[in-house]
Predict the structure.
Amino acid sequence: MTGVSAKKTRRRARRAPPAPKDAVLADALPLVPFEGFTERVLQQAASEAGVSRDLLARLFPDGPLSLVEAFSDYADAEMRRQLGRAKLSDLKVRERIVMAVRTRLAVLRPHKEAARRAAAFLTLPPHAATGLKLLYRTVDEIWRGIGDTSTDFNFYTKRAILAGVYSATLLRWFSDQSDGEEVTEAFLQRRIDEVMRFEKFKAKIRERASGLPSLSEIFNPGSGAPPRRRSRATGA
């Protein structure tokens, strides 16, 4: 392929229309701040994107809930894409986490009111399970995006801890009106500091506990089994 042909191919790729699902999401997000995640918004966005009702039903089988899920998946994917271009190797783990959380908030920033509406939508009892699923996906994408490869028990504890940090920071961000979102930044740093102090505390406890004798050693250093209690009646 010549250089000219390659350039034309790249230009055609850049001009390629978005996938139908992405097109519906793009047309829905400007409507959500005014009407929320509703069936009406979904139908209007589909009409603007030129997506038929039959295709819409296949792309968004759970209606507005599927639209919220598509929004979250978009934010996760864009965050991972941006993290993939960042130089993370020189950063400490806590700095990578802070960067990842900042990045996801930056992805949401043009759609902040839609993100607020999505969070409120997911707090409704019928949607709570999906909310937890999407939160797990996000923190999993964060850990993977910063290069975490753990597969042991830490795999789950890391995600559980980060879920608390991210969700609390997101809620703080929704109400942040400060210049440069300084309040959110300070809140995030405090939460990370709290986690790091807790992790250091756990490490110290494990270190101290490793030097203590086991229960079997305490009961009976010779056999590893608890000693038999002597009977006063038989002396046995």
Summary: The chain has two domains: 8-61, 64-212. The chain is about 70% helix and 0% strand. Residues 182-210 form the longest helix (29 residues).
